[in-house]
């Protein structure tokens, strides 16, 4: 397992399964954590997953008539146009009036799983809008080369934090899935 800036990584000895997840204490989260993983890498039958976990805000405790902006980060896994697998991270911003929501993922960085090379992956950045229902929200998102969906939740007693998952696809087999959190 390795750690850098509050992001933890783990890999099995056979290098077929790996995960990246956020250390909630290092990131300042009180109510959540999140991560992404690949199982069966290189076997032809691998699977990708992402999750956002924590203490969900009860619908009755979601603020009304107020607005909030949450800032945080994402972790994910991607296949870029070159066909190579990557672990990704980005800055995330979620703005809401608790009936509508705007989501933006920017500054995406990618680490090639096979070579360890780090590169900018702005083609995986996305923005979008959606709606809030109780303690959850959804948004359709798009970027320069991808489109997809974000599913999110409010965490904490009074929607103190936000988190969720995303999945986007694009031309040339581009696929990106991950999770995010913000305070």
UniProtKB/TrEMBL annotation:
Residues 62-182 form the Transferrin-binding protein B C-lobe/N-lobe beta-barrel domain. It holds the Pfam family TbpB_B_D. InterPro entries: OMP/PagP_B-barrel, TbpB_B_D. This is Transferrin-binding protein B C-lobe/N-lobe beta-barrel domain-containing protein.
């Amino acid at each position: 397992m390795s750690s850098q800036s509050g992001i933890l990584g783990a890999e099995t000895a056979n290098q077929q399964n790996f995960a990246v997840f956020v250390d909630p204490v290092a990131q300042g989260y009180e109510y959540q954590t999140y991560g992404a993983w690949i199982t069966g890498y290189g076997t032809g039958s691998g699977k990708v997953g992402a999750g956002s976990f924590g203490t969900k805000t009860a619908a009755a405790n979601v603020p009304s008539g107020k607005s909030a902006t949450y800032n945080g980060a994402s972790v994910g896994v991607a296949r870029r146009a070159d066909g190579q697998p990557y672990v990704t991270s980005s800055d995330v911003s979620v703005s809401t009036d608790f009936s509508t929501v705007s989501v933006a993922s920017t500054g995406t960085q990618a680490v090639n799983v096979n070579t360890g090379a780090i590169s900018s992956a702005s083609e995986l950045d996305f923005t979008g809008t959606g709606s809030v229902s109780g303690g959850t929200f959804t948004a359709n998102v798009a970027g320069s080369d991808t489109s997809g969906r974000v599913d999110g939740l409010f965490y904490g007693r009074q929607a103190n934090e936000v988190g969720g998952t995303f999945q986007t696809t694009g031309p040339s087999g581009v696929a990106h899935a991950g999770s995010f959190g913000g305070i």
